[in-house]
Structure formats: C-alpha cells, structure tokens
Specification:
Layout: H1 5-18, H2 22-30, E1 37-39, E2 49-51, E3 57-60, E4 65-74, E5 81-90, E6 97-112, E7 115-123, E8 134-135
Antiparallel strand pairs: 1-2, 3-4, 4-5, 5-6, 6-7, 7-8
C-alpha cells in the first residue's frame, strides 16, 4: 500500500515526536510507588485505611472520632514528614465538637507491601485527649 507524499511527511514527524517521549511515558506510567501510612482505630481492630499524602483523614475511637483536616505536608516521602492542620474531636457526652490546630509528624519510613510506608505518626495534641503528643494507631507493617 502506498501512502501519498503529502501524508508521509506529517506521519514521519508524528513518529519522530513520539519516539523520544517513549521512555518518559514509560517512566511516568510505571512510576515509583507512593509513600503512605495505614491508620487504624484508637480502640484496636484490624481495619486500616490506606493514606497517601492525605489532606484529611479520620481516626475512629470507641466513643468519638478524631478528624484531621486541612493538612499541609512538607517533605512527604522523606525520612521525616511534618504536616500542619486541624484536629477535631466530637465529644459524645456533651454533643460538641472541639477543633484545634495540630502538627503531625510521620517518621520511621520502612519498605511496606505497596512501597515506602511511615510506621509512626504522632499528633502534637488532640482536642479532649489532653495536652501531650498522641501516637496515632498506624500499622507497623506496611
């Protein structure tokens, strides 16, 4: 089959433009695995939520839940990553929700099943949990 001369040139240009991009497209499509952590519940159990560079997530507990929101992370994927944002706790006894600023520190980066995983996440403070830092229930095995 013959291709007309006026079609061959644009076709040749299209092939030449695509070939140099092939390694970039392959690298982007294969990509490195995202860094993540798996957060559980304060009252134990085997249910974990997969979180990768989260801007918000919730940690349930027996009588309330803690919602972390408006999270802005620095150095996500590095050995230590820090986020600032808000933590809200609903008090089931009073029926009120208390919100305060929070700083999360994700550390102890290990190789997990799905890529690099933080195995420790610490909240600077959580409303209604007292003034001390609180370790979030994060899976030790990625």
């Amino acid at each position: 089959m013959r291709v007309a001369a006026n079609v061959r040139k644009p076709l040749r240009r299209a092939v030449l433009l695509c070939v140099p991009l092939f390694p970039v497209l392959v690298a982007v499509s294969l990509g490195a695995a995202p860094t993540y952590f798996k957060v559980g519940s304060f009252n134990g159990g085997d249910t974990y939520t997969f979180e990768s560079h989260p801007t918000r997530f919730t940690v349930p507990s027996e009588d309330s839940s803690v919602r972390f929101s408006h999270l802005h992370w620095s150095h996500w994927g590095a050995r230590v990553s820090v986020a600032s944002g808000l933590a809200s706790t609903h008090d089931s006894q009073s029926g009120k929700t208390v919100t305060a600023s929070v700083r999360l520190t994700a550390e102890r980066l290990r190789q997990g099943l799905y890529g690099p995983a933080y195995t420790t996440v610490i909240a600077s403070r959580i409303p209604l949990y007292g003034p001390n830092p609180v370790a979030l229930p994060v899976s030790r095995v990625g």
